[in-house]
Amino acid sequence: MTKIRIAIQKSGRLNEDSLEILKNCGISIDNGKDQLKASSRNFPMEVFYLRNGDIPQYLRDGVVDIAIIGENVLIEKGHDIDIAVKLGFSKCRVSLAVPKSVKYNSVQDFEGKRIATSYPNTVKNYLEEKGVKADLHIINGSVEIAPNIGLADGICDIVSSGSTLFKNNLKEVEVMLKSEAVLAVSQKITEERKAILSKLQFRIKSVLQARQSKYVLLNAPNDRLDAVIKLLPGMRSPTVLPLAEEGWSSVHTVINKDKFWEVIDELKQAGAEGILVCPIEKMVL
Ligand SMILES: Nc1ncnc2c1ncn2[C@@H]1O[C@H](COP(=O)(O)OP(=O)(O)OP(=O)(O)O)[C@@H](O)[C@H]1O
Ligand SMILES: O=P(O)(O)OC[C@H]1O[C@H](OP(=O)(O)OP(=O)(O)O)[C@H](O)[C@@H]1O
Ligand SMILES: [Mg+2]
């Protein structure tokens, strides 16, 4: 039987969330400790556990068909690789930073300076576009220490909370790109495996939509129903059911989780009571 071959980071920041999203898609993976390859019991899929930085080459060679990888790595090493869907986790940016004490005006300040980074292509392209020439020092980790030990004048690295920059007395001065985990696809994927990919994509979409949404149940007096319903768009329109107590209704709907706290005060003011908010496991539109 044909299986789709997916690359997942062996260990590191993407590993857990990548396995979690497959699990939420109902895909069980037999996973022995220290195994570099595993198969799914209930979906035509083989999983390869690889280093994040090696994955673009595996995709290019067609050794794997798809991968869960940081968009930033594709920008650095995989311009020829397609993105099927953005996965909404491991959000970060790739930025230039300099010591806090340095007075910074513009990207032109990097002219002739030494920049330490693990993302040389990204920095080179960014600076070329701005007409700036700098001297790049490629290092694989602990990049933020470079200015403190006299290795570089500035750095380019991943920033999320900013705490690593802060602890190393650096400040972020240019955001070069924003990134999140994505499902990437090899250009060499066969038609047969594309059919499996489209099944997987359908499941991932349902999981991501569900993660973004909450199921809301509330009670409202019938004479306030119109005002309550106006605040609740729902998937099509809210469900309204009579309560056992005369003159009251129960309203059921789906709300985008980012909007929930905004809407709740308005709902209370409009007369809603006993508001319940529940997670949604899957959502098929
Ligand atoms: N602090 C962070 N916050 C959010 N996302 C991050 C952060 N650091 C890294 N990422 C994202 O997670 C990906 C994996 O990062 P991680 O540090 O685990 O691996 P790595 O050392 O770059 O790769 P490898 O697997 O080759 O060792 C990065 O490419 C980036 O997309
Ligand atoms: O802005 P922050 O929230 O501090 O995150 C940024 C840091 O996270 C990543 O390092 P990681 O912890 O993955 O270590 P690594 O260099 O060993 O990959 C990245 O390389 C930064 O150093
Ligand atoms: Mg890291």
From TrEMBL:
Class of enzymatic activity (EC top level): transferase
Primary subcellular site in the record, as a coarse category: cytoplasm
Superkingdom of the source species: Bacteria
Glycoprotein keyword on record: no
Domain Histidine biosynthesis HisG C-terminal: 210-282
UniProtKB keywords: Amino-acid biosynthesis, ATP-binding, Cytoplasm, Glycosyltransferase, Histidine biosynthesis, Magnesium, Metal-binding, Nucleotide-binding, Transferase
Residue ranges annotated for the ATP phosphoribosyltransferase catalytic domain, each copy included: 51-205
Cited Gene3D superfamilies: 3.30.70.120, Periplasmic binding protein-like II
One CC-aspect GO term: cytoplasm
Its EC number(s): 2.4.2.17
Gene Ontology BP term (one): L-histidine biosynthetic process
Catalytic activity: 1-(5-phospho-beta-D-ribosyl)-ATP + diphosphate = 5-phospho-alpha-D-ribose 1-diphosphate + ATP
HAMAP family cross-referenced by the UniProt entry: HisG_Long
Main function: Catalyzes the condensation of ATP and 5-phosphoribose 1-diphosphate to form N'-(5'-phosphoribosyl)-ATP (PR-ATP). Has a crucial role in the pathway because the rate of histidine biosynthesis seems to be controlled primarily by regulation of HisG enzymatic activity.
Family assignment from sequence similarity: Belongs to the ATP phosphoribosyltransferase family. Long subfamily.
Name of the featured protein: ATP phosphoribosyltransferase
Organism (species): Maribacter luteus
